[in-house]
Every structure is written in structure tokens, then in C-alpha cells.
Amino acid sequence: MREFMDHITNSFFEATRWNRGNSYSELNATTNDLLNFPLPYGLRLNLSALATPQFATSYQLGAFGSVDGSIAYLYSSVPLNGVVAQSDRVPLLPLLRSYRPLKELGLDREGSPTLYSGTLLYGCMYLPRSTLQARVIRRFTPGLQAQVSAVSSEDLRNGGTVLASAHYDKGIYNVEGLASTDGGLLGLRGLYNFGGDASPADMPISGAAEVSSSGIALEKERIYGRFSVGGELYYGTLNKSAGMSVGGRFATLPAYSGTPLTATLTINPLMGNISATYAVLGGEHCTLASMMDFNVYSYESDWKVGMELWSKRRPGGFLLGAEPESRPRVAQPAADDPSRWKERSFQAKLEWRLDEQELLDIGKDDAGGATPDEHLGVLKARLDQHGRIGLLWEGRIKSLIFSLGAGIDIRRLDQSFQSVGLNIRYSS
Amino acid sequence: MAFNFNWSPLTADEKFYEKARDLLTTALNKSPKPPIIVDDILVTEFNLGSVPPELEILEIGDIAEDRFRGIFKMCYSGDAFLTLKTRVQANPLNTSLCSKPDFTSPQPLAAASGLTIPLQITLSEIKLSAFIILVFSKQKGLTLVFRNDPLESLKVSSTFDSIQFVRDYLQRTIEGKLRDLMMDELPAIIHRLSLQLWCPDQLPKEEDPLKEDREPAVDPLASPPLDAVDSQGHLLDQSEIAALSLDGSPEVQSLFSQKNMLRLATLTNTNRTLSLYTPSIKDVMFRAWAGVADRVDSHSSPLATPSLARSHSFHGTATTYTFSDADSQEHGHLPTRPSLVSLNSATTGLTLGSGRNSKSGRKKKNRVVNLRKKAAMSGTMSETVSEADDTASDSASIQAPVSEPLMSTAIPEEPELAIPTPGKVRFRSPEEQSQARPRSPLSPPPFSQPSAPITVEQPKVVAAKEQKQKQTVRSEKVPTSTGQWEKRGGPESDTSSVILEQAWIMKMAGEIARRVYDEKRRNPGFWEERDEIPPPAYEAR
């Protein structure tokens, strides 16, 4: 489950039209989400609110052995008006789905620069450990964004670290530089897009795909996607260590009518590591991902598979004792039963306010019913070479979004359950 | 005295190596490893080699059936080797990001991917040279401490020998780690093992592992084991008993068994009431105070107990009693006494503080059997200093009335005169000792074996200024005091101690009389009443 503050931050990026995915560090974000999703640990309660369109708060309380918690505040200079933060209404699919379809490149950023500027401030304090986190994101021009993150904690060597990064996004290419106080690390990342919508030469093809009905069947069959290649380079000025990698990705564009897929290949020439990932969105309800890792120096290999299954049934249906079919049966009379309407209006005559609320509710319910394939829960699972299984079940009960996870080690049968956790979130 | 260590059977035993390998493997994997080590550390080969270490006895502070305290010098340059296997993370970016918070991590895509390399490290050509302090007692197990840094040199060869930088780094790191291991970990391991061997009853009491772990790190000279109070008669002096009765702290309670405490209490009461009953205490050796006859107090008479094997005699004030052994009185007290007393004083100095010592009012004699030349003395300097402090405070309370006899007890130690043949030192048995005593320390020893005359260094009883004074008068003092020493043999310090004790008794008597007087003035009726009925135990017989 994406954290509430991450959700709001993403909303900020959307509101300022910043393409977060157009970065080398996000090259294999899809498979990473599918294969390395975090498992909840212990019991954790989260109360969050987007109090005003510009201000959000989040309180978290965790209990596993000892009680700990965190308090977080977020301020955005751009009003996040269209963002749905309420946990009973937020659409689950964009919130929980790991597969991230490519977004269109910001090739044509017209309009005034004020549309693209904004500032986000975020602070979080972890209570018993006295750890403080802060982040500032500032968008200067349509193509330039800077970000500073800092952590202050007594556990860290110098009491804290600061990471500053600047991103320059030109659509076709993206360059970012970063500097960290931790070891004096300097980094440079770059990404170049071509093919698909990125290449002007290919642009007509997309047009052809759109007019495929005119008879060009061959063009329709042709796979349509975007290539991205990039690299990263790091150098620690204090510990004199360096690191680098190059990588490439092919991902289909949303306009492609076939099965969406993403394939990446990353190579670390210094360490001799080659990693290939593949993720495919097999229909509406299923996503599959796999990863293969090989080191040419040490001949070590690793693999991981993961999947994501979406359920249309009410999550925890057996827990609540409700049949899966019961929901449409209830929803249908609410949608178009004239007697109900009349009854409501009779009540409305007594209490005007209640009537308005009910109407609004029904309208919302109607909208929910209008999209028949609204997903209500998702099961994520992964398995790696060492026999470790991760299971995560996320969904919504009433107005609570929960995520229940377990880590299982099948090689050690005596204590196979490595971790069990439950996260419950309510936001308004 | 000579020890014969058999090195080859120890090294030939296959099971020994297996056990040692297992022990080392578990010890190495116990503590959390740095992120650079990604696998368990396995001890694959371990061999002690065929060359035994050279061991020299420098000093034996205390020797008895159930305890031992000594200082050794160990030199080793043999062919022992040790091979370790593990896997290390070769990507510096990976290890540096491991312990950092996610929030400020640069989150590299693949630059931090790991490369693990199997690593084999062989430690060989180990050269050790150390002063070892060994303290053993049945109650507290074996404590072994290195006085100095034992590691002289070491050859580290690894998979990365071709890379100069890595080789140097490994050499440096491993040397440092090994030093830590030798100085801190090894004494703890040995202590724990010895506890398992000799006193398993102590083990369940180790509920606080930290305390036990720290214990061996404590310098045994600063804090010798608090042993032998119940089983060895000589340590049973007034201050010890006072400590027992006054602060029955759990620490003390754990040192003495309840049964023995009861018996000792009975013994004390026996002395108080002049009862003839002597409780039999198991495993007790009664040690001698030489010259006890001189310490007879004014108001208690020597009392012969019916025990035939040993003729005990009780002397002293209400709680001070000493056990004399006729046998050891003849032979003098030299072989056993010095260290006992030094141990005693250090113990009391540690646990009770010197204040209580001075209260006890008995002159403590501290002697160190000095077998070494001055240069080697540095090892035991702290010991003697602490003793000197102790006795200085001791004597400070007593010496005021009689300062002259005190000088005679302070037999000048002449380390430069009593230089033993450097290095090889033998310790002599009590019989030899008593024979050799009349000999002047300067005369060459008649024994063919290289041996050293044992100089008895009477305590640096004297505080710093006295020391200075002594040095000024040494030229005259030396012959006379040596003469006294030779003439009188065993109870050399008795005249002084008698005078001291008499002075103390006079003082105490005055004190008591004053208190009685005060008390009488305050409550005259009470005392008149009491005078007529003396307690039956104190009736004259």
C-alpha cells in the first residue's frame, strides 16, 4: 500500500504536471513494486487527513513489542483540489496497483510557467526514537525541479544526513544530479527516450494505430512502445568508492491495444552484475513479474517471481459474512427503486438536510455501480530463490483500507512465519 | 619447582581440534557482523603446531592446594596457523548504503548490486610475547590476564594478497581484532570454561552475564579473588568477620555457604564464651600465625583445644583469633605467609576499605616474594603500590606511639642486592627456605640449579616520606636490620607488633574505661546492679 503521504506527494506531482516516472531511478519501478513490496510488520494504525487542499496530516501508531508512532505534516503550495484522499472513496486501483503504465512525455509544455511551479514541504517526527525527517520539493521551471531530503537521528554517524538532488526533465531526456553528505556521495543519472511517442519519426505510427480501423491491420498488430536507455554514476568523495550501472527498458504505451508489458535490462559493469526483469499485465485482474539476476564474476544467480491478483469480490467477504452477490442486490434497489426514492423524499420533507446527504450518497453509489469492474481487494505474492514467500492482501472494509501481510520461509519449517503484520488506515 | 608441560599429546588429539574449531566458529559468529561480511565465518583449519611456547615463572604470589597466583612470561614463535573462510561484499556502495536510512538514500538502480567474493584468510607465523597473570582458586575459577599486549607479529595471507591495499588493510584490521580478542575475549572464555569445570554451582548464579563477562577484565592484582575466607583460617580475621556480619550483601552471601557461616558463628561464640566445644569445619586447613605466643592479649589466656591432630590455640580479643600450627611455627611462616597477607590486605582494601583495617588494630605484614630484578618489577608495581597504600593507612593509625620499632620491621628490601639470575627462576620449598635463611642474600646459592634467594620485602609499610627517611639511614640500617633478621628468623616483627598491640590495647582500655565512666555517670543504678552479677561465662575459673 502506498503511504498516504506518498499518495499526496504523487498528487502534487500530477498537479504540477511533473512526470516522475521519466527518470533513470524509476526505470524498473514496476517490477520493483511487484517483487519487493514492503510487508507490514506488527500492528499499525494510520489516521490521515487532507485537511485543506494544501495541508495534510498523518498520525501513525505502531505496536509490535513496543509502541511507537510518528506525526507527519505536509504542505503544498499548489491546491490539491481534485485529489480524493478519503479512505472510503479513494479508488483502489491507482492506489494499490503496482503496474505503472507509461505516462506521456512532457514534450509540449505550453501555458504559463505558473502552472508548473509549486513547492512541497514535508516533515515527519518519529516519537520514541527522536528521528526527524524533512523534505522540500521545489519546482522552478517547467523542466527543473529540486529536492532536498534530510534525516536527523542520533543513531546516524554525524547525527543526520542530507540528500540534495536536482532533476532536469526535457521529455526526450532527463538528467539529474545528486549530492549526499553521507560519505560525500556525488551522483549523476541520465535517461534518454526513443521510439514510440518519443521519436518524431514514429509519431505517425501512433496516428496510424489510431486510424487502424481504416484497414491497416499490419500496423495494428505491430507492438507499440517506448524505449528508454540510461545510466548512473556515483562517486563517494570521502570513502573513495565508485559505482555505476547502465540500463534499458522497453514498455508498451497505453495506446497499445495488446497486452501491456515492461522489460528492463540493467548491467553493472564494475561488479559484473546483469539483471533482467519482465512484467506483464495479463488482463484486468492479474499482473505477473519475474526477475533474473546473474553475476559474471562470482557466477551467483538469483531469481524472483511475483504476481498480483485483483478481486472484484468484497474483500474479507467471508469475514463479514456477506455474499459476493449481495452487494449488487443492495446497490440495485438503491439505484433505481422509485419506492425508495419516494420514501426518501418523504423523509426529506421532515429533514431537508438528511435528504441532501442521501441524494449525494446515492449519486456516489450510482457512480460506483456504473463502473461494474471496480476492484475491491488485491492479493500480492512473491517467491524468491531462497524459498521466501511474501503474501500481502490489501483492500477496503467499510471506510478502512487495510493491508495484511505475512512473510513465510518454506525452508525453515519449524518457524516458517517470519513476520505477520496488519496496517489499517483511515483517512478523510 | 619445575613444571612439565606436554605439548605434543595436546596437539595430536584430533578431538581437541574439532572442539576448538567449533568453539572458535561460534565465538566468531556470535557478535553482529559488519555488513561487509555476508556469510558465516567458518574456521576451516586450526593447528597449534609442534613448537611449544616458552614459559617462565617470574613470580609466584600464592600457592596452595586449591589456589594459585603467579606471573609468567610466555614467548611463542611457533608454527601454529589458523584458516578462516567467509564471504565478503565487494561493492562499497552496497555496504555503505546498508546502514543508512531509506529516506535520504540516493536509491541507485543497479549500482549497488552486490558482488560477494569468497575470502580465505590464513593467520600464521604468530609471535607472542606476554606477561601472564594467572589466578586460580577453586571458588572463583581460573582468571588469566595478559599484562601487556601479547601479540608481537603475525602474518596474514588471504585471497587478496596480490592487491597491496587490501592486504595491508586486512593485516591491520586483523591484528587489531586479535589484540582485542586476546586482551578481552580470551580471559572471559577461559574464566567461563574454568567455572564450568571446577565450580558448576557458580554457573546458575550467573544471571547477570554482563557481570561475569566483565569480571575477568578486572586486574586481578587490583582485585584478587575474594576467596579462602571460609576454608582458609588465616584470612579469618576480625575485619572479615565484621564485614560478614555488617554488610550481608548478596555478593558476600554467594561467597560463603550458609553452613560454614553457621559453623563460623559457632566458633566465634565458642571463643566468646570460652566454651571448649570446637565445631568441626570440613576442608579447613588451619594456617599458622608465627609468633602468636607474642600476641597474647592481656585478658585472654591461651587455650588448648582437645583436638589432637593440630594444636589450635585461640588468642586475641573478642573476635580476633588466630590459629597456630606448631609445625609451621618451627619452620617459619615464610613460604605461605607473605602472599597470604598481601592477598588479604588487597582484599580488605578493596572490599572494606582501609578504615576498617585500621579499626582492626592488628598490624598486617605484607611481603612480596621478589624473584625478579628491578627492571621486571614494573609488572607488579601496581600491586606493591596498592599494598603500600593499604599498609600505610594501616600503620598510620598505629605507628604514632611506637615509631622506632616499626623501622626495624621494615626490613629494607634490596632488589639490587638480591638480583636473581636473570630469566630462569626457581621457587624453593619451605624446607629449603628455612635452611637458606641464615645465608646472606649476597652469598651465592649453594644449589647447582639456578635459583634465587628469596628476599622478603617487608612492605612498603612506609609511606613516601618514611621511604625517604629510610633511604637516608639505609647505610647504617641495613646491616643491623639484616642482623636482626638472621638472628631472629621467624617472628622477626613480633617485638614491634607486640609493642604496637600493647599500645593499641592501652588505648582501647582507656577508651573502654572512659565509656564505662560516662555510662556510669549517666546511669549509675544500672551499673551498680550489673557489677554484682557477672555473666557466668566471664567468671574466673
From TrEMBL, chain A:
Top-level taxon in the UniProt lineage: Eukaryota
GO cellular component: ERMES complex; SAM complex
InterPro entries linked: Mdm10 (IPR027539)
Cell compartment(s), UniProt: Mitochondrion outer membrane
UniProtKB keywords: Membrane, Mitochondrion, Mitochondrion outer membrane, Transmembrane, Transmembrane beta strand
Keyword Phosphoprotein found: no
Pfam families, sorted: MDM10
UniProt keyword Mitochondrion, yes or no: yes
Principal location listed in the UniProt entry: mitochondrion
Annotated membrane topology: Multi-pass membrane protein
One GO biological process term: protein insertion into mitochondrial outer membrane
Notes concerning its domains: Lacks alpha-helical transmembrane segments, suggesting that it resides in the membrane via beta-sheet conformations similar to those predicted for other outer membrane proteins and porin.
Entry function: Component of the ERMES/MDM complex, which serves as a molecular tether to connect the endoplasmic reticulum and mitochondria. Components of this complex are involved in the control of mitochondrial shape and protein biogenesis and may function in phospholipid exchange. MDM10 is involved in the late assembly steps of the general translocase of the mitochondrial outer membrane (TOM complex). Functions in the TOM40-specific route of the assembly of outer membrane beta-barrel proteins, including the association of TOM40 with the receptor TOM22 and small TOM proteins.
Family classification: Belongs to the MDM10 family.
UniProt subunit comment: Component of the ER-mitochondria encounter structure (ERMES) or MDM complex, composed of MMM1, MDM10, MDM12 and MDM34. Associates with the mitochondrial outer membrane sorting assembly machinery SAM(core) complex.
Name listed for the protein in its UniProt record: Mitochondrial distribution and morphology protein 10
Automatic annotation (TrEMBL), chain B:
Compositional bias annotation for Basic and acidic residues: 463-477
InterPro entries: MDM34, MDM34_N, SMP_LBD
Gene Ontology cellular-component annotations: ERMES complex
Membrane topology value: Multi-pass membrane protein
Region entry Disordered, spans: 325-496, 522-541
SMP-LTD domain span: 1-195
Segments of skewed composition (Low complexity): 449-462
Keywords: Lipid transport, Lipid-binding, Membrane, Mitochondrion, Mitochondrion outer membrane, Transmembrane, Transmembrane beta strand, Transport
Domain topic, free-text comment: Lacks alpha-helical transmembrane segments, suggesting that it resides in the membrane via beta-sheet conformations similar to those predicted for other outer membrane proteins and porin.
Compartments where found: Membrane; Mitochondrion outer membrane
Protein name, UniProt field: Mitochondrial distribution and morphology protein 34
PANTHER family named among the record's database cross-references: MITOCHONDRIAL DISTRIBUTION AND MORPHOLOGY PROTEIN 34
Biased composition range(s): Basic residues: 359-375
Function recorded in the entry: Component of the ERMES/MDM complex, which serves as a molecular tether to connect the endoplasmic reticulum (ER) and mitochondria. Components of this complex are involved in the control of mitochondrial shape and protein biogenesis, and function in nonvesicular lipid trafficking between the ER and mitochondria. MDM34 is required for the interaction of the ER-resident membrane protein MMM1 and the outer mitochondrial membrane-resident beta-barrel protein MDM10.
Coiled coil: none
Biased composition (Polar residues): 339-351
Main location, first listed in the record: membrane
